[in-house]
Amino acid sequence: MICPECVKGRLYGIAHMKSIEMECPRCKGTAEVPDIQAEWIEIGKEIKRLRLENNLGLRAGAVELGIQPSILSEYERGMRNPEDLKKIVEEKYNG
Ligand SMILES: [Zn+2]
69 C-alpha to center of ligand 1: Å? Predict the structure, then answer.
């Protein structure tokens, strides 16, 4: 699938009053992500929805799960296989 986060593999933004351009970290500049990530992105949205429903910020949600906020953010953006997060949750709540 086409990378949902960049323009042809590049990211554009403004930092310190200057426009910046960088290689997209999700697709590593290829502008394409594996098709499986389309599914991960949908599941990630659901993870985020559940977190917000429980009134948890990113940091609080990560603490709840015992993982780093940056890692939780990657799950929510579909950059990591949500199966791994499912295992973390199952171990925490059913283990
Ligand atoms: Zn990209």
Answer: 21
